[in-house]
Structures are given as C-alpha cells and as structure tokens.
Amino acid sequence: MSTATSTPSDTPMEDTIRSKLQSSLNPTTLLIRNDSHLHAHHAPMRGSTSRETHFHITITSPSFASKTQAARHRMVYGLLKEEMARDGGIHALQLKTRTGEEEEREKEREGEGNR
User: Fold this and answer.
1) In angstroms, how far is CA 49 from the centroid of its own chain?
2) Domain 12-42+51-113 is found in CATH 3.20.20.100
3) Whole-prediction pTM value?
C-alpha cells in the first residue's frame, strides 16, 4: 500500500482564497491573480517575507444576484477577514464581482468589439 506524501503548497494564501470563495459563493468563474510582485517595493511591504499579499479576483456567482457592487465586495471581504487581519496576510484585494448575466453581457460586448 502506497502512501501519498503531502507537500506544502507554494501558494497557501491563494489556495485558502480559492477554497473559501468556492465553498461559500459557488462561483461559475473564479480567477485569482497574485499581483504581489508588482507591489514588493512599496514601503508597507518592506520587510515582509510573504509573496502573497496583493490579489486581483474576478468572480461570477449566483450569490451576487440583486446585490450592489459594495455588498458583493463586503461578502468577499467577510469571507477573507482572517486572511486580511493576519500579519503577512492579504494587504490588498482588487475585485471584479458579477452575476452570470453580467458576465454574458460583458462577453457579448467584447465580441461586438472584435468585429
């Protein structure tokens, strides 16, 4: 019988973000981009050993239906509050939150622009 060895992830914060958003918001689209390297030279990041502090998240979820952008962002921030409060945790999030219908309209507009 073989046993699998568990190796630590190179992206534990991204893994946590993905897990929490998937389990709570059941997204149809979830894109997470780590932009931390773009901000490493900023004064608040000096001395930080974390390479997972700044993220751009695009998420499409039925949970966002009939909610304002501000309410949607509060939902995401609420899910990630522990990671944002932790020393060396998330310093900044850039969010794009939308419903399936909004995503479809966006794709249609992009298609029209490519003609």
Assistant:
1) 20
2) no
3) 0.81
